Amino acid sequence: MLMFPTQGYCKDIKIGLVTTTGSVFIGSNQDGILINSFTNNVISKIKKQDPYKIENVNGLIKIIDKSKTPIGVYRGPIKLIPEKNGFVCCNNHWYRGELLLLTNGSKNNLTIVNNVDLEDYLLSVVPSEIPSSWNKEALKAQAIAARSYSLGYLGRRMEKGYDLECTVEDQVYLGITSEKSSTTEAVQTTKGIILLDNNNKPLIALYHSSGGGYTDGIESLWDKKPSNHIEKHIKPKPDYDDGSPHFKWFRDYNISDLNSSLMSLNIGDIAKIQPMSRSPGNRIMWIKIIGTKGESLIRGEEFRRILKLPSSKFNITVDKKTVKFAGRGYGHGLGMSQWGAKALAEHGFNYEQILAHYYTEIKLTKIED
User: Are residue 144 and residue 96 in the same domain, yes or no?
Assistant: First the structure.
């Protein structure tokens, strides 16, 4: 395994927790302080377990204490920093690290960001993304994939004031209540280990739940690539996800529901749905939808997102007024399959072998803290 020095290693990551036009309640389990990052002045000390109400008032951040007394109105950004080893709270969800309060120049929106140590972030991400009861080698593979994804996509949501979303749009992050001992061990055992691409940059290690027998190449499914060279590393691979509950799936839509779901295409009532091309992994690359007022050619991945189908690997049949989908797999089908990783781990593969199977021509690297 290659060893790299500390330089270039990101210790903290910013995760968007909520953006709202309403109010948000924040706090800490320890005493702490609120700091105006714009002026670097301390706004107020905060008392442990007390809720503080935060609002956007014409582009300024208003802070109200437990007794409903306004502390003040500030330009921000504002940091909530708890005493050492304290946890922070946002709308009754608890997190490690600090909170950052932003308006991003909006006169209405309020954004709450968790500024957290990358390794602490992974303590919640790994059990939020994969069952903590699974084989430890699968958990280690997931920890490394998630760490690589985080560093590879650092700054992805920069225009929103943070790095990554806390949802499936990036990685699911639920805070300290999701942490489990088995996944904590997996994160700590693999601390600092990431996947490097052939440019010696952290690989955007895409992963999904279940490949339905075969994963896919990124060039087949996505128009917009997250990096210029990722297609060299995300290639079609045999998957071993037979044990997945989504290995085979079925969905039925009546025509009226289908028309409603596809209304945004502006082609009238749906008359025909025709797959035009398929990927090496048998996912639909392009699909033509013919309506009474026109037709539309869209990516299979876009089609599955519109209809909330488990994957873009499916066949279509029409029975009277019902459209039937029979498919395999769950998720976009790119990179590591979590159910496949589980099967490989149970058959004696270690995390390095699992990652080498799903990611082509990668280097496993430990960046020293």
Answer: no
User: 14 phi and psi, to 5 degrees?
Assistant: -105, 125
The whole domain housing 307 covers 249-327
Taking the C-alpha atoms of residue 305 and residue 333, their distance in angstroms, rounded to an integer, is 13
Question: What's the number of domains the chain is made of?
Answer: 3
Regarding whether 269 and 151 lie in a shared domain, the answer is no
Residues 235 and 359 in one domain: yes
**Residue 16 within a domain:** no
The pLDDT of residue 319 is 82
Say yes or no: 135 and 215 in one domain. yes
Query: What pLDDT score was predicted for residue 225?
Result: 86
pLDDT in tens, 35-89: 998 888 999 999 999 999 999 999 999 999 999 999 999 998 999 999 988 999 9
For residues 140 and 37, membership in a common domain is answered with no
Please identify every stretch of the chain with a pLDDT value under 70, giving residue numbers as ranges. 1-10, 369
Asked, for residue 114, whether it belongs to a domain, the answer is no
Do 228 and 180 share a structural domain?
yes
What is the pLDDT at residue 85? 87
User: Are 332 and 208 in contact, with CB atoms under 8 Å apart?
Assistant: yes
130 with 167, same domain? Answer: yes
CA neighbor of 204 nearest in space, from 159, 145, 139? 145
Q: What is the structure's pLDDT at 292?
A: 93
Predicted structure pTM score: 0.93
Query: Based on the domain organization, do 358 and 211 belong to the same domain?
Result: yes
